[in-house]
Amino acid sequence: METMKKDTLPNSFQKRKILFDKKPLPEQLITYGECFLEAGHLHEAAEFFLKASHKEGLNRLKGLAKEQGDSFLFEVVTRKAGSAAGDLKQEWEEVGNTAMGLKKYSHALRAFTRAENESAKKQAQEALEEVFTLEQT
């Protein structure tokens, strides 16, 4: 398995079997997580890292989520890793600001909602509404 390549990643049935095996080896889970990460499948990598309780992998995904303004990935790797919501407000702000800069307004809206930043949330909501208005014309 150490020589696994991107084109040999498990399909969804195999992935489910690996993740929900009675006693998967953490090293095996981490290897799969690394392969999914290398292939750019961040949410799948998160599943394996979470199952293995692999903090290093989860921290890398958390950083990527912040860099990409991905509120869904950020929530998965922080919530399931046991991070308290109040401790993350500043990081949610970072995710939101990045998402706004990348014009990922729905991600920004989610992030600013989690950060409890009403003014930024309103800006993201207005930007999102503007996009939908432009698409309808």
Secondary structure topology:
Elements: H1 12-19, H2 26-38, H3 42-52, H4 55-68, H5 71-79, H6 89-101, H7 105-115, H8 118-136
Helix pairs in contact: 2-3, 3-4, 4-5, 4-6, 6-7, 7-8
List keywords for this structure.
137 residues, mainly alpha, 8 helices
In short:
The protein has about 140 residues and is an all-alpha fold. Helix content is about 70%, strand content about 0%.
Structure description:
With 137 residues, the protein is mainly α. Helix 4 crosses helix 6 and helix 7 runs antiparallel to helix 8. The chain starts with 11 loop residues before the first helix and ends with a helix.
- What sequence of helices (H) and strands (E) makes up the elements? HHHHHHHH
Q: Main β-sheet: number of strands, strand sense, barrel status?
A: none
Structure class: mainly alpha
Task: Note the overall shape.
Answer: elongated
Mean pLDDT: 90
Tally of DSSP helical segments: 8
In angstroms, what separates the terminal alpha carbons?
52 Å
Approximate strand percentage = under 5%
